[in-house]
Structure formats: structure tokens, C-alpha cells
Amino acid sequence: MNIYFNARAGKRTLVFLLSILMLNLPLFAQTAAPAKTASSAIESEIVKEITVDSIKNSTVALTADDMEGRGTGQPGGEKAANWIADRFKALGLKPAGEKGTYFQTVEFKETTPSETSFKAGDEELAFGSDYAFVPMNNGNKSASGELVWVSYGLQSKANNVDMLDGVNLTGKVVILREGPPPGISDADWDKYKMGSTIRMGIMRSGAAAVVIVTNPDAKRSANELISYFVRRQITMPDEKGYPAQVPPVIYMSAAGAEKVFKKAGMTFSEAMSDGNTKTFKAKELKVKAKLSAKYTNQKVTARNVIGVLEGSDPTLKAEAVLFSAHYDAFGKLDGKIYTGAADNALGTAEMLSVAKAYSKLSQKPKRSMVFLAVTGEEYGLYGSKAWAKDPTWDIKKVAADLNLDGIGSEVYGPVKTIVGFGAEHSTIGTLLNDLAGSLDINVIPDPMPDEKIFYRSDHYSFVERGVPSLMLLGAPGGEKEAWMNKMKEWEKGDYHQPGDKIQTYWVWEGAETVAEVMGVLGWRISEAATMPSWLPNSRFGKLQRGNTKELPPEDEEK
């Protein structure tokens, strides 16, 4: 699942992270999988043909060391694409890519930090541990100026707060603390866009650079963000970054900030404590900073992989049910492999198991079935956007998209819970509810609505083109609060890190259930007299398949 900034969602606002749904792990291995049921003979065939071995074998293959993390535009990503194409061919799926192949080539620009430096006085900070530049896709950057500590940078006449009172920020390197401050909730801070408003105000004041530090208990620590920003960046070749006049933005860890504030005669802790009051006023630190960032750019390519099982109905076979999952992860960096087992080798393997099941059915579906393994998701849904923009199947005849993406919640136990991201927007939601009921699975609404997960995976690329879409997330039963707490433990250590590997405690029957739901749901869409439609009360209610108009920002959802 993607977490990056982009121009639309702010790579896309740091879009963090899907909550994983877990319970007490030792108990899971001793719990039997739920019995399988289905509403028709063909659906029973689908369920029977989707197996643990199929999903496990594909996941193992995609996470092997020689796949090198399936990086977009890297040799491992190319090898994974070829492997998936070979699987499609072995299953009898017809090529549905370009020029009679299984592939759709997508061009990217790869940007890699080549030289960076940050000095506070005579103190040289370490790139990658003390600090990292926020990638802005707007070229090399350098700046210098006196350091100024502004804490949260709050200004509010109504609350008699002005942390910038009496300081001239022009030409200064401003150290800004990421909010929210005491007394303001995370929800209000985000709702009213206070952080971005403060940053923009500082930039408009003529700051030479903005250095951001985070609170110790921040849900997105500086260290976590630095680990992303030191990696190579992937963008579309023509993608515009921030305007050239936007100054450099740097995230700095507590260790880096400690070095900087030491040059000013105080500790980082003292600075944070001093800046935690309404009466705080910005302080010039009497230390000059010099910073520089240089980047190397090159063109790289990666490939979507597309296979199709042609439908049996003479008329309806022109329409298609689209199944999607991204196969890319973060590849190989500095000798480390970002395996991406849960996110999203597992989802790709589940989709492949659905394709295998369909290839063995005694009766073909009425509509065609298109299986799309996309690249570039982790950097901005790029592969799915490329296909949606230039589809290899008539987008106006794509009945629905069913997408699999997550961080492994389905393998922490037998799946008793399903989240259908987007279910409330289209008639697919009713189909999901009916199916889940027959399987004794509880369908719940988005457990983290503030995270706007619906807008952060590949299905949304098809929503933008007017195609009703759904992302499936499986989870164990139990209280939602328990799922959230367990998720956070995994998120801190393994999410988008080399630690995202297949684990011995995974309960593969959970992944089997998720694939079964995808497979049977796709069948029911295929056999219906009409294609799914948007609900009238949805923000997408008036969208037509083939839409080319830009949708309103996500925060304007009704």
C-alpha cells in the first residue's frame, strides 16, 4: 500500500497507513479455518479450486531473494513481471497487453540523492540518520542562513498566541515542530489543515529552508519519514513537482536536532519543552546552517502484466470484471531487500489463485475476466493510473474492479471480518454483504475513515475513470480496538521495511478465504444482467465509465 506524497493528496500527502487487523498470535495457529460454503455449484467449484498451496507457493516465489524486492524499474521487478506473465500463460489466459503480449510498458523518472550536506556551524550532520530532504521533484537545492527555532509556529489572535512575533524569517533556516500542539486534537489539526497552513506561511515569509522535527509520540516520526526520503524516488517523466521557488524542506531526527541545538547552547529536549507553551516566541539560535541536495535522474521502465479469460456470452463477453493487485515493492537498496511479502506479494498471489480457479471451471463466466498485476503502486498508483489512462480493454466496458492490497491482516488468523473499501459507493457493496453472510463473515465499514484508505490503492485509479471499484481487506474476528493496537506494533518495525517477510505464524487459510471472496464476488458480477452502478447518494453517483474529468479532492467527500 502506498504512503507517498503526490500532487493530488498532498505524494499523496503522507498517506499513512492501513490499520492491520490482528489478535493474539499464539492462539491463531490452533484455530480451525471456517467451513466453506457457496450459493451455487460453480461458486463451489471456485471455492474448491482456490487453495492454500496455490497462494503460498506464489507468495514464496514472489518473495524469493532473486526477485530482489520487485522494485519498480529494477531487475527484480522485471523478473517478477516475467514470472507473472508465465503464470498467466500456463493458466491459459490470453495476452491482454500491448502488441499481443502480456505487458504494458510504463516509463518513469528515477531520482536518486547523489550528494547531500547539512552543516550547523561546524557540525556536519549524517544524511539518512540525522536528516533527509523531502523529495520535491524540482531539481537540486541549496540554501544557507541563520537558524531560527519557531516551535509550532502558531499564530492565533483569538487565542492570544503568536510564536512568530518579532522575528524576521526572510533568509532564515527555520526549525519547525510538526503538530498538533497540546490542546488541539489530531482530528482538528488535520481537518483544518493547520500544519500545511503554517508551513506555507513560513515559506511565504521568505525562509531559506524549513527543517521539520517531530514530537517523540508523533504517529509519523521523523526517523520513519527519513527512511523513505533517502530512497530513490519514482515519478512519471512529465510529473510536475513543487514550484521552483519553494525552498528546501528537511526532516530531522531527534539525534540530528540534538546536534543542532547543542551548537546553540541547549538540548533538544529543552528546546521542545520551552516551545510547548502559548507564550513561546521564536528564537534566533545564533548558528548558521548550510545545506545542499543534488540528485541524479534517469529514465527507467517497468511493466504492468495483463491476462484475460474470455467470457462465454456472445454479448456480455465484451464487458469485463477487472481483478487487480500491485506486485511491486521497494526493491533493493544499499544491499537490503525490501521483500514486500504482505504488501503486496500476498495480494498478488491471492489474485493469481483466483485466475487459476477460473481457468479450471467447468463453465466459463458470461463476462470476460481481466487480471491486472500492476507496477509502481508504492510511489503513487502509477501502474494502475497508466492502465486506466490507456487501457488495453475498453474502459467503458469494465464492469467493476476488485482490488487486493494490504499489509497481511488476513494471515493472522481465520478471516471472520471483511472490510470492503468503497462498498458504500456502489451496488458491489450489496453483493459483498450477501456473499459474506453466506460465509459467516462480518462486513464492517472502514475502521479508519480519517486515513482515507479508499483513495490510496490501485482501485481508485479506476474509480477516477468511473468504474465502480472495491478493495477487499480480510481480518480475524474480535474487537476493532485490539486489531488497531496490534497493527501499530507491526507497522513500526516491518511496514515498507526489509522486515516485511513471510512469517512462520502466518495462517494461510485466512488468505485463502479472502481469495475465495474475491473469486465468488467476481463471478456474481459476471453473471448479473447489468454491470454494477454507483449509488445515487455517493459522491461518485453521477460518474460515467470513461470519465476524464478530475474528481474533487478527497476531503470534499460528503
Question: Can you give a write-up of this model?
Answer:
The chain folds into 2 domains: 25-62 and 310-547, 3-Layer(aba) Sandwich (Aminopeptidase); 110-297, Glucose Oxidase, domain 1. The model is unreliable at 3-38 (pLDDT under 50). The longest helix has 20 residues, at 508-527. With 558 residues, it is of the alpha/beta class. The strands form 3 sheets. It has a 16-stranded mixed β-sheet that branches. Helix 2 crosses helix 10 (341-359) and helix 12 (428-438) crosses helix 15. It has helices at residues 25-28, 41-49, 52-62, 75-90, 186-191, 194-204, 222-229, 254-263, 268-274, 341-359, 382-389, 428-438, 459-463, 480-493, 508-527, and strands spanning 94-95, 103-120, 123-124, 131-133, 141-149, 155-156, 161-162, 173-177, 209-213, 233-235, 249-252, 283-309, 320-326, 331-333, 336-338, 368-374, 398-404, 417-421, 442-444, 469-475.
